[in-house]
Amino acid sequence: MDFIPPGTRIDFVGKRRYALLLSLLLIGAGLLSLLLHGGPRYGIDFAGGTLVQVKFSKAVGLKEIRKALQGLGFGDAVLQPFGQEGEFLIRMKRTTGELRGLSARIEEAFRKQFGEGTFEIRRVEMVGPKVGRDLRVKGLKAIIFALVGILLYISWRFEFRFALGAVAALIHDVLVTVGIFSMTNREISLPVVAALLTIVGYSLNDTIVVYDRIRENMRKVQGVLEEVINQSINETLSRTILTSLTTLIVVVVLFLIGGGIVRDFAFALIVGVIVGTYSSIYIASPLVISLERRTKRGRSRR
User: What angle do CA 71, 73, 74 make, to 5 degrees?
Assistant: First the structure.
């Protein structure tokens, strides 16, 4: 199915400077947000601490919940509405050793404050600070190793200049996604790291399709590299849009009705699919042109 009519000639390469400016603005805004927030907002998985999810069957205010927690010495807990109406997350920095019998203690306090049968404690998660730090390091290593592996694979499969373009586009996707998470004050958790790795794989798949068509056209057409890349992007545009659109429909539905637990994961995928499609067209392939020009300039100087 051709979503884009054959013979379409959109000048993507000619607009690469505007795309670069947009990317720099997005990355800059994200880095500024991270700086102002003192880094990413890590979830319990990475920061360590305790999380309690509770669902009330009647309307309850944050002040009432905090009042019940103050009696247990948890007045500094962070309260956050979550999922459906009447559902809340309670976050505490203290961990396992200090919180023995936490669930039972909270149940007792809430029973006194709100009455029997008016609430349900749905989950209690505890992660020590050392475990959280180890998970954070391993998550970062997973992303770095994935990018190094991709660099080696594309250098072998295509050329080193193509590999640099692909890895630059993937780093761009991760930075923009993390920046948007910071700007929207969302948490970075293990599911979000899984989403970032999924984004890397998705965006790479799209980039490889374009690269493969560029290589085919370079064999068939003896022309300027800019024209070959532009032609290749236009020829694969229909496939790119259809793939991205169908994937986006799935993750949007997951975001809307999947529940609070998977919402951040789905949000990361929504951002990643959009940014990954954009970078495959405007970052990965046009960057090959810049590398080619720089190589030729270096040769002429010699």
Answer: 105
